[in-house]
Design a protein that fits this description.
The longest helix is centred in the C-terminal third of the chain and has 30 residues, at 405-434. The protein contains 22 helices and no strands. Helix 3 (76-104) runs antiparallel to helix 4. It is mainly α. It starts with 36 loop residues before the first helix and ends in a 14-residue tail after the last helix. The protein binds beta-D-glucopyranose (BGC). Beta-D-glucopyranose (BGC) binds at residues 58, 175-176, 179, 286, 291-292, 295, 324, 389, 393, 416, 420.
Length: 510
Amino acid sequence: MQEGSNVAIPMRRNAAGQPDQNSRQNNQQPARYTASSFYTYMVAGVAALGGLLFGYDTGVISGAELFLVKDFKLTSGSEELAVSAVLIGAIIGAIFGGKMADWLGRRLSLILLGILFGVGAILTAISPNLTLFIVFRIIVGIGIGAASLIAPMYIAEMAPPAVRGKLVAFNQLAITVGIAVAYWVDLAFAAAGASWRPMFAVAVVPAAVLAIGMFFLADTPRWLATKGRWDDAEHALSRIAGSETQNEIKAIRTSMEEEKRGTLRELLRPGLRIALVVGVGLALFQQFVGINTVIYYAPTIFGYAGFKSASGAILATSVVGVVNVLATILSLFLVDRVGRRPLLLMGLVGMVITLTAMGVIFALGAANVGVLILIALLLYIISFAIGMGPVFWLMSAEVFPTRVRGYGQSISTVGNWGANLLISVTFLTLINGIGKPFTFWLYAVLGIAAFIFCLLLVPETKGKRLEQIEAYWRNGRTWEGEAQAIGEGRRSNEDTGADQPEPGQPRIAS
Ligand code: BGC
């Protein structure tokens, strides 16, 4: 965990990517950048390959699994381990990813991760036995965990405020595209009778593009500034901020001075503790609703439901992958219009209903339930993809105050991978222990708990500035008290002679 290595902020903005108008004195409109937006989109596109590899390398296991079971003679215990090895690595990667990005820079980190993904892909593909397969998957997992922090961090630090939300969310879209591509690649190789090895090898292509692409891009102005390389920072910034470069350099200086004040203890204080509960709670519930039993084990579930051939089960899974992408695109259009809470709550209702239905379908045990399970799974994945999927990653970037966002986001990311591991290693054991119906009903119950959690604790952050969200926590979770708190914050700073915040930027009470 580290301080200030999150989606941190060269230019003041809110985490949803909206320009943060308070960052400019007198609420001026955000800058209209004159530099190349093509360059900015290219930057985001290359870095989002980190998200694509996250999706590909987690999704690929589902189609490979049926072949691995045969080749390595897996029991349900060793099958769970083969599926979950990547997640053990991802937890490690999420813990150290932030530090790596601070030490080496975002750019060099992503180049090294590209190389790691590439080497890991080849080693996995040629694994001679289960033990080495698991070791290589852990290594790839370390890359995934680190990339799940660093890719959005790089994009957010490079993107102009006006398109930052779209570009950060683009990373989540890349994850779902990676999963879908993995499914289709699995399907192609399964249909060609090629078994599991080439499925893993294919990841070497986006890995190479990531490493080579990043080689030609600059590091973020903010990271360069933290190393005292102000000339380089200015040069990098001029490519994305154009005529606004000088103003933004000033904003980086201010933001860096403020960030020094953030500590982990600050995040654990009574007012902000609840923000941590919300961030970590969403991280855990995103996984406890069982999403990755579907993403990783879909062909196995279709196998239970009567799909006879491996390629038939993988074909059904490929449809799930495409629907996941399409529903994520829909969510990107809705999240700033409808808001976070309605999407979360509607999505959870959908997930609870479909999980319950899957339990019922398996309980009735009718002969050919494959199509029914496919329909239920598709509705389930749509419910996840419009709500919990993108909204967790987005809110994890917005619920924490800027100065402690590094800690907050790292903790919730590690929590997310940990919960992912827990669900993945227990899924088959649960199926064998309490049976299919009760396994899905258990996730439905956890979905109800998630619904209650979101209903009671998760605020609507649509259209709010980061400072408003910060004041919301400090004022006992009310939006109304914000204006008063800002006034009080200013008065107490004047009293103590402390540095004055910019207008509309309250401090966290100490
Ligand atoms: C989750 C992953 C999941 C993916 C599915 C992401 O938001 O963090 O665990 O596999 O969505 O689309």
